[in-house]
Amino acid sequence: MASIAGGVPLFSEGDVATQLICGHYEYRGDLHHPLITQLPNIIHIKSREMAETGDLHSLVSVIIGELSAAAPGAKIIVEKLAEVILVKLLRLYLATVTQPKGFLAALNDDRLVHALNFMHGNSHENIPLEEIAQAAGMSRSSFSDRFKGVTGLSPVVYLARWRMFLACDMLRIGDLSLVQVAENIGYESEISFSRAFKRYLNVTPAEYRRQAS
């Protein structure tokens, strides 16, 4: 980092040209999705040990080309490809873990993936636990035990948190009223939504919107 800041070449000796690509991802500190909180501090993907890294090399090459050319739209292309790289890195990491734990383990469990997709796709409705379990092809009790045993959260708690994630985005970005936000994430009234929101984030939706603006 000091070399980059001072304009000093990182690799000043040797016959082989080396190119170092750096980047970073940002996620909001007010939201704590288990996928983020349960990741290790370092993920090291070694391309020589994994044949599946060919796509990563291709994506990085495209990013290098876009950064070098600086053509119109390059920033958007680079950002989108960086998102693809992140997903592929997480896939590769999951493939290296013999016994994945937490939310990553849920992404490796077909039944729980069906349940997660169902919750994400129907979070605007007041869906009962029985329907989520049915989407996973399991009974209510066995699904609840399995979901909590793998992710560390009950399905009800996870769904409530996911709705709060969506609500935060709506409050930060859009101009929907609190009633509309509540309806869009499956709450029957603004009052019940506001109570749940404050319980999770310690501020009311109106206060959160003012702070975000």
How would you describe this protein?
With 213 residues, the chain is mostly helical. It has helices at residues 2-6, 34-37, 54-69, 74-96, 102-107, 110-121, 129-135, 140-151, 155-173, 178-184, 190-201, 205-212.
Structural class: mainly alpha
Order of helices and strands: HHHHHHHHHHHH
Low-confidence stretches: none
Secondary structure tally: strands: 0
Portion in helices: 55-70%
Please count the helical segments. 12
Q: Give the overall silhouette.
A: globular
Determine the mean pLDDT.
Answer: 86
- What value does the Rg take, in angstroms? 22 Å
Q: Major beta sheet, specifics? A: none
From the N-terminal CA to the C-terminal CA, the straight-line distance is 32 Å
Q: What percentage of the residues does DSSP assign to strands (E)?
A: under 5%
How are the SSEs placed, and which strands pair?
Blueprint (H helix, E strand, L loop, with lengths): L1 H5 L27 H4 L16 H16 L4 H23 L5 H6 L2 H12 L7 H7 L4 H12 L3 H19 L4 H7 L5 H12 L3 H8 L1
Helix pairs in contact: 3-4, 6-7, 7-8, 10-11
